[in-house]
Amino acid sequence: MNSLTSLYSPTLLNIDFDLLVDNATKNRIGPRQKPPSSYWRVPDKQQYLTSIAVHESQSLCAVSSGSRSNNLFIYELAPNSGVPTLTHHQTISLPEIHSLCWVSPASDLGSHGNVLVSGHKGGLVHMTLLPDTHSSDVPAEILKRFNHSRHLPASAPSLRIKNLALTSASWSTFPSSGIITQCGDHLFLWDPSRSDLPLIKQKLRGDITSMDLCTTRNGIMAFGGRKGVSIRDLRVKGGSGLSPPDPANEQATVVKWSPHNDNLVASVHNRKEIKVWDIRASGPASSYSGHSDWVTAIEWARNEPTEIISASNDGTIRVWDIVKPDRLCGTNHSVRQELDWAPSKNWKMYQMRQFNDLELDTLARNLLSPSQPMISQNRHFTAMKLASRGAVSIDSEGYFGYHCLHNELYSPVLAPSESDTSDGDFLPPLSPT
């Protein structure tokens, strides 16, 4: 078991925010101080990180890879005052993982201990019991395996499990800790306490790429795909789902249900635009633009019901205030503000320059920016989850990152920190690129 600590208290590169917003405007907007980030290189040989899972009550994080061996890494994250620490507890071989969920300790299945559910290439889902974090000699144990290929035709185009979820306590008509998976164009629901036969198998239409369940509405899920956002009641046999009859409901790549308001669903459209939908209305309540590349993940803030956090391949993580809409449904009012820091890579600078040229006039007169760029590290963020007092991420360069969203934890210093978790060796932070 290895404890890995950054040498310096990390923060983002110094950019003068006052150059972009004058004092009067700054006082009205109330921009946040740029928070710090820490990065640790995950020792995956292929640098093919695919998913993150965060424990509900402990400071544990799981990072998975698409590699065939030594590809599931269990860490303990301690966002201590001044310097965050990352402790490596175990590396497990479960080949080609593409999705992860941590079972809630409050559920029946969670009473066994720390249980992870993982989706794999080839249509397999494993339910794995992790050993005690302080017992490095005890191996992990596979409690159950579900094989989708037994329930799909041999001609199925893909058996990769990229989307999975666990039923919540409010889903009273479904088993506790039920596992919901998407395999190709089919949706499955499994009961871990019974046989390995699915309780539900439903056909999905519209090239679904994302799904999320409503934790407070029994049996209700949201889906995103080629035909936009839709919702479905799994209690209805053969239900086809409901979609808003609005031309703004374009192809959706990410969906996320609000944990604070079960009428609100956030989604990503055209890969860059975030929309908030009220399922009681026929169109989006508001729309937000600001990212210049694919938005790969969105999360609703845990303690702020009006905040959405997004991560993108443009190297930024943004916090959006949905009380300050970028574009209201049915109006031409636009209050976009682009305050990203200039990336160092030439192609990104060109990309950002093009975007900024289009938004220059808006930037000069905007007083109510709906978002603030919290993190800018010139990285392609591939996944993001909320963690204790911040967010964790993985990127295409093989790094696990922690981003503090509460500035009181850290004192400002000069640069972000990076460390390497390979073989437990500690490396000093690398110079930011």
From TrEMBL:
From the Swiss-Prot or TrEMBL record, what is one GO molecular function term?
peroxisome matrix targeting signal-2 binding
Q: Is Cytoplasm among this UniProt entry's keywords?
A: yes
Entry's Pfam families? WD40
Carries keyword Transport?
yes
The alphabetized UniProt keywords are: Cytoplasm, Peroxisome, Protein transport, Repeat, Transport, WD repeat
**Family affiliation:** Belongs to the WD repeat peroxin-7 family.
Q: What is this protein called?
A: Peroxin-7
